[in-house]
Amino acid sequence: MADATHGPASFWTQADALLRKNLTFQKRNLRTNIRLIIFPFFLCLLLVLIQSLVNKELDKPSNRCGCTCVDTNGDGQCEEKCGIEYSTLDQVGTCPIPHPPEWPPLLQIPAQRYRAVRTDFISYSDLSDESCKTTGSCPVTMLLTGNNQTLGLGVAANMFARRPLNVNSSDILFSLANYPLGSQSKTQFSSFLEPAFFSNLPVYYVQSQCAPNSEFPVSLQIGSAAFQQDVSCVPGLQLWRNSSSEINDELYKGYRKGNKERKINEILAAYDFLNSNANNFNVSIWYNSTYKNDSGNQPLGLTRVPRSVNLISNAYLQFLLGPSVQMLFEFVKEMPKPETKLRLDFSSLLGPLFFSWVIFQLFPVVLTSLVYEKQQRLRIMMKMHGLGDWPYWMISYAYFLLISSIYMLCFVIFGSLIGLKFFTLNDYSIQFVFYFIYINLQVSAAFLVADLFSNVKTTTVVGYMMVFGSGLLGGFLFQFFLQDTSFPRAGIIAMELYPGFSLYRGLYEFAQYSFTGNYMGTDGMRWKDLNDSKNGMREVLIIMLVQWLVLLGVAYYADQVASSGRNPLYFLWKHQNKPSTSFRKPSFQKQGSKVFVEMEKLDVVQEREKVEQLLQESSTGHAIICDDLKKVYPGRDGNPEKFAVRGLSLALPQGECFGMLGPNGAGKTSFINMMIGLIKPSSGAAYVQGLDIRTDMNQIYTSMGVCPQHDLLWERLTGREHLLFYGRLKNLKGAALNQAVEESLRSVNLFHGGVADKQAGKYSGGMKRRLSVAISLIGDPKVVYMDEPSTGLDPASRKMLWNVVKRAKQNRAIILTTHSMEEAEHLCDRLGIFVDGSLQCVGNPKELKARYGGSYVFTMTTISNHEEEVENLVRHLSPNANKIYQISGTQKFELPKQEIIISEVFKAVENAKSRFTVHAWGLADTTLEDVFIKVARGAQEFNVLS
Description:
Helix 2 runs parallel beside helix 11, helix 13 packs parallel to helix 17 (537-562) and helix 22 (719-729) crosses helix 23. The chain is elongated. By secondary structure, it is α/β, with parallel strands linked by helices. The chain crosses the membrane at residues 36-54, 353-372, 392-420, 432-450, 462-482, 540-558.
């Protein structure tokens, strides 16, 4: 492996390594990216298709201004003429109207069945009896109050004065303006056609008392259509109330709530004269808004309000100056308009729902990518090889922001090219600011939410539920609150704190302006429109901007707590994270009798004393020192605490390979996880190159290599790309990087046959294992941890891997865990047998076999009839022999070495062959496996007894 001679990688080197890896990974996901982009393209094309079908229907002659052929010169040659006079009522809306018609102003008259009467919940005795609804004779009620009742009633008396109806047939509408007219019909988007005169509902004129036979017809001519409308009298009932609170109470009790079973009492209007007198006119007006129409940008339901104002103003003048004085309100009419086409912009109607899905679907994409790295433990793998938090955050954030920006740019460009008014009418600079702030908010939210999940499948389901749920809730709930002018603005702002509703509100505002602009032939949203109090885009931009900055900070803080295992108040103790300059002797307390049992084992005692001595020195050549390291997992579901590591003390010099042996569950992996920073020790300390694992892991990572128990690889990256990435994190550059990668691939037999450039997801288990070993050794790390590195390898690959490790240990410390005794004996300078969280013995393989293997193993196979003779033979050779195995004529015995002379064994076997048949026999020295079994079994039996 090539050496890294430039020290730890700089911030920008780490950032460059991660960016290159991410771009390579993104290139491999080309098909996924194409499918992602197809979704908005499909929705846009679907909207265009719907729009074209609707436009085709709207372009039919029945929906255009009417035309006919007119003989203008009397020569029999006709000329096509178009206009209102040739149109039906369905066509006039598209015609040019240079001189809109004039209509008399109207009041909103309650329908007969809704007019105010005396009921059990409105018990004023001056109201009409409820029986009038049966006869159809209920008057319309007007309520009055004020500080001066005499003045109030005097003024009100002039509002509905009884005088004969005098209609001029040559100018019917103008003569009708002299009377307080009203209708129970709904208002329209345009007052070019007043619906009161073109419906089956009557038009009323209000008087104090109605004369018999007061109904008469009125004939109207609009374009080519003739209409006849009935105008009838309705009595007006004026009632005094003591205060405005009484009026409010009566209005509230009579309010239409939509409950069909509830009785409804509507009034015509109400007036509070306040402090009015002969020199001061000050009035508050309640008006009937049952059929208020707030569609579009103008509340056209208010077109009937001016008549209420004129009515009381005219009555006040007559009260002061006499009945001959009149402030005549002649007419209301629309502004002139050019010829228009009937259009219905579906991109604006469906845009808020569809486009919120399009944009919000980036959220689960970013979220699952982050959770994937978390689930596969790739984030911690990168960190263990030297990638700092700041480079990771900066590049990951910029990477997802870049992807989101390209996605949104393609979306807007495509929507504009195919002509969707949602994009083409609204100012592109406003769209850019809105989308840019939102995608930043979305990426920040994804980083925060990623801390709550650890499984990609669960994350995907939850993410897409949020996408479609937010769109549907926005379209079928939130939009109704936006359109309800009575809903508190504070409630709207509170709902917009959820990013999905902020997105929907912004898209809704774009849609409203593009729809109106397309319908009216004007521009969409411009920057000056943000000053409009009814435009919510400004508050949405402010909310999203603040949320973006807050969520980004909270997400980074949560990541430091959740992913890095820091204390939630870590920022209060920054001084603890300073690099160590020398060993620090921690205080530790011996616990339990098992520590004293360990102290009785001479090799373990010597190792502990060596650690104690090294800790007193200011510097040492030892790469790793563990001092009374403990890990205790808390009890759950009624189970007791689990002691994974019990007071481990160990010292490893540079250039040594230390092997950890032990049965499953002995605590080896917990020890490795503490040393590589995956988990925190419960007590004790460990130092790597003089740095404390409790506080200095970020510095330790720069000189550490890890081969984890399970391969942590990106399935879409090749073996070469993995090594290039981790090599860059170790500060390898240029030719040195390429040389190191090539040597690493050759050393683990992944260079030839195109294997190096095959994606890791297509590797076999053995190939992945070899790649993990190569990753742990690239860049010349000073300390390497290998957790069962040869698992799943064939014999040839295992031998090759052993050669790699033997070469690598020359200038670094290696801790290796394994279940292969052959591997341990071949690679390790020293071994430690770990049982039930405790180190049972320490030494090189020969020492351990000499210390724990003081016996030979004698094996003989005969027929079953001679088993007793074989046992007598063994007892004769060694009275203290111990039978350890017997099955079908094969027996195995342990013979103490001090009782055995090997030549005597051979003689005894030759003698036995002359007396009975011996199929096979053997005499073997103790193996490392025997030592392991003996130590492990002895320790476990002791633990059971204790």
